[in-house]
Amino acid sequence: MGSSNGSFKLRIFSALLLAANCVTGVAAAPPQHGTHDYSQKFSSVAITGGGYITGIVAHPTEKHLMYTRTDIGSTYRWSEPKQQWLPLTDFIAAENVNWMGTESIALDPHHPNRLYLAQGRYVTDTDPAAFFVSDDQGASFDIYKAPFPMGANGLGRNNGERLAVNPFNSDELWFGTRTEGLWKSTDRAKTWKNVTNYPDAAGDGIGILFVVFDPKNSGTIYVGANVPNGLYYTKDNGATWHSIPGQPSAWDPALLHAGHEPASTAPLPMRAVLAPNGILYVSFADFPGPYAINYGIFMKYNTKTQVWTDITPGASNTYPAPFKPQSWPPGGFCGISVDSKDPDTFVVISLDRDPGPALDSMYYSHDGGKTYKDVSQLSTPEGSGGYWGHPISQAKLKDSTPVPWLSFNWNSQWGGYGAPSPVVGLAKFGWWMSSVLIYPWDSNHVMYGTGATIWATDELNKVDKNKAPEWYIQAQGIEETAVLSLMSPTKGAHLFSGVGDIMGMRHVDLTVPQPMYEKPVFSNCDNLDYAGQNPDVVVRVGSSGISYPDGCGSGLYSKDNGIKWSMFGSCPPGVGNQTHLAGTIALDASGKSFVWGTLPTEAPYNETGPPSTQDFGKTWVVPKGLTVSTMNVAADNVQAKTFYAVHGGVFYISRDGGVSYKSSPASKTGLPADAAAVPVTSFDKAGELWLPLGKSGLWHSTNFGTKWTRIGPKGLVAIYFTLGKSAPGRSNPALFLWGKVSPSGSEALYRSDDAGATWVRVNDDTHQYGGASIIQGDPRIYGRVYIGMFGRGIVYTDIAGNSGKNVPGTFGI
Ligand SMILES: *[C@@H]1O[C@H](CO)[C@@H](O)[C@H](O)[C@H]1NC(C)=O
Ligand SMILES: *[C@@H]1O[C@H](CO)[C@@H](O)[C@H](O)[C@H]1NC(C)=O
Ligand SMILES: *[C@@H]1O[C@H](CO)[C@@H](O)[C@H](O)[C@H]1NC(C)=O
């Protein structure tokens, strides 16, 4: 048996090397006609992490060479000179978005320039997963489609590494799949063969979690799968396989809490590290993770004597002793890193003590696990009341740049992701800390990934003296938020974001991380709007996960450009704190009328039109004339009380603040019969609006939607559409389109300066990011557009040479 896929080969160069070419041009004299094709500069909006770091992998010999993988944002390489992580796969096209997650990273101990990435986000995706093969540390890749699926955003993504290079044969790679057992390639990941004699294919969707070669014994490989007794080894390079004798095959009843059965019948392997002295350290849990783990153990296996020793950190071997009130859940174990200079010195991290006051811990041992120091407790400042965490003042980069959003400083009012320390003034030590690395070139430098970022210290030795090491953030350059909404008003901060899990930010400076929005807080911020003629009034809607007695925690407005926020007096009928209801918020030009296109699922709320309020949510009115529940609402930015909706081909307009609507069928307006999209309204002309209708093209109206015309070339596909500041000498706004401007063209970002007659491509093949999830033009900076991705954060692009005089984020305030 076997499967070959060698026919497909694609040579792709990442943005890394080519980005420099894109900033060489300088804005030429502005054209009066047509659309000028400028060089563009691309930059990330600095949030610094914002998503799950699933792996940190260092080369064993090449100094400073390390990579980090993420679940939905692919892989980054550390640049020591730049002190920054560099994205390696921004070239991924929208059609290959499934490649935007890294299932595993493999390095070749003998060829430091070689990099192997196993790319695929979801096992259920119909697009194939792939191996990205590089000979230049990820500056360019050959891509080979894989004959099995991958699931970088699936359960068990915290474990690994599934992919490994045979240290005795650089052409040979092995890969533990989620669904098809163990596979082997003898041509550097071009083609793969099923290792059908492997005894336990464990094709349960999580499958084989790690493949560990013994670099001292040719042919010896350790493989672990997400099943009880899931540890196997071979000494003859896979000719025969054996169960590792003595592995834990049942839970110790003393570990278990009454009334809480473990999720597995025996400990499941999570990660394994083979130390140079032949000790295999293995972490175990009762569930693959990264969430829902209740129990776990940590063991070492002497591969020479075949003896197992339970070295689980606990009350009898750890200082300080485990925090007392912490009883449930005790959690499992996952991340392990062994000091490159001493095989008995290592760290291991618990997984999923959340929620609880103690949270997860990093344990540090110098004696092979006989005794431990609890790094998390020792990092806790005095006066924390027993809660563990870093002081908030430490949420900063090594160069002291603050990363304020990481403080999660809202106490019990945080209803979202990652449950922050319940003590105001403490950022918690971490959660989902499954990736950890003792820096091979400095044993006091340890870094660990969390669900949100990478923390690091250069003072691990301080815990030996029972002192707190100083921690800093080492995630600069990693941008992996899932972007849900973007807003660029005509005044104040240039950019407001709504993102998944960490709410979003008012980006007064695009180059440094910002605080999250003030209270009340959301986990997801789904939509934003501003008042066209009163742009200090802004609004956001999202999911808070918290029910408030005195207002609507899902809908908030601000009268000072998003610094302080107030809840609507009440939620509209049928809306609670849930994420799926948030929908679209539209705020009229004056800042007094709001229309909320929510998405209630229960009758009767799902059978009315979008409710409106004229009194900041004290009362909500269900409209007349628009009786369907729709998210496709927008406000006119010039004329007060004027709202638009497009649903089922019907165009609706309200001129009384959303209380009543007049409707016009497609046959009258000229729109397609199935037209449905959120209208995009001019920021300076009343009654001018656009409608992006996918394959049905881009539509335009200048008379309050009475008549519509299709604009742009034939075959234009309008997936996302936004407006930006006019080109010099033009009165119409610049149009930005994510889509196609010809049927056979590429899906890309385009700009038109002349109202849609001519278009130029804005992004090149090295800046595709797996496709956008949203685009937003800037009404104050010609040529600037913000691009939001699902897993690659926010990127903004400027006309090269134009960005220098526009200080990012602060220009025009
Ligand atoms: C690969 O082999 C395993 C047995 O080890 C089997 O369960 C699986 O179906 C095979 N998959 C393919 C695609 O050949
Ligand atoms: C969210 O609202 C629902 C009802 O809409 C309620 O049952 C639930 O308890 C609320 N969640 C929180 C955390 O308050
Ligand atoms: C409204 O929700 C009910 C279920 O609560 C469903 O039966 C009905 O079809 C929904 N109506 C619409 C218009 O979606």
Give structural notes.
With 813 residues, the chain is an all-beta fold. It has a domain of 359 residues: YVTN repeat-like/Quinoprotein amine dehydrogenase (Methylamine Dehydrogenase, Chain H, 7 Propeller), CATH 2.130.10.10. The protein has three helices and 58 strands. The strands form 15 sheets. Strands 1-10-9-8-7 form a five-stranded antiparallel beta sheet. A five-stranded mixed beta sheet has the order 23-27-26-25-24. The chain is globular and about 85 Å long. The N terminus and C terminus are likely disordered. The site of one 2-acetamido-2-deoxy-beta-D-glucopyranose has 5 residues, from loops. One 2-acetamido-2-deoxy-beta-D-glucopyranose binds next to loops.
